[in-house]
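# nightly structure sweep
# worker-07 picked up a monomer target from the shared queue
# config: single-sequence mode, recycle default, output format = C-alpha cells
# input follows
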Amino acid sequence: SILMQRRLFLYNFRNLRKAKGRRETYLCYVVKRRDSATSCSLDFGYLRNQMGCHVEVLFLRYIAAWDLDPGRCYRITWFTSWSPCYDCAQHIANFLRSYPNLTLRIFMARLYFCEDRKAEPEGLRRLHKAGAQIAIMTFKDFFYCWNTFVENREQAFKGWEGLHENSVHLARKLRRILLPLYEVDDLRDAFKILGL
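# output follows
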C-alpha cells in the first residue's frame, strides 16, 4: 500500500521524550516541481530503513535516479520519525550542494541521540548550513501526515497526551543545537549593517 498503517504511524511518529524500542526511521515525503508562482506535485509516499541502509540514503538514491531537470526548481518535504544521524546529515548536505535547484524541508518527530555527547548535533548544524530547513513536527504536521500518508479510514487525527509539550521541548532543544549558526549569522548581519 502507498499509505502507512495507522498503528505504524502512531507507534513510530509519537514524539516521546524517551522512545525506547523505536529503532526504525520512517520518512514520509512530498516532491513538488515549482514553476514560477505555481507548484506541481510529482510524487508522495513513505519509506523506512531497509537492511543496513538508512531511509535518508534510500530516498537520496531514489530521487537521484529521477535525473532532475537542472533548469527547474524542486521542493522536497520530509516528515521523519527521527532526525538524521551524523552520516546521513552529511550525505544530505552533499546532495543539496550537488542540486542547487532543489530545496529540502525536514520536519522531525524526535531528535536522534542529541542528548548524548555524539556527533548528531553537529550533523544537524551542517545540514542546516547546507540549506535544509529543519524543524520539529507540531500538531499541524502530525495532522497533515495523518491525512496525507496514513490509511486512516476517514478517522480524525487525535493527538496523544504530551504531543504539544514534547514538540515545544524538542523545538527548544533543536534551537539550542542550531543557535551557534544563528549567532554567527546575526554577527555577520550586524557587521554588514555597520559596514565592517
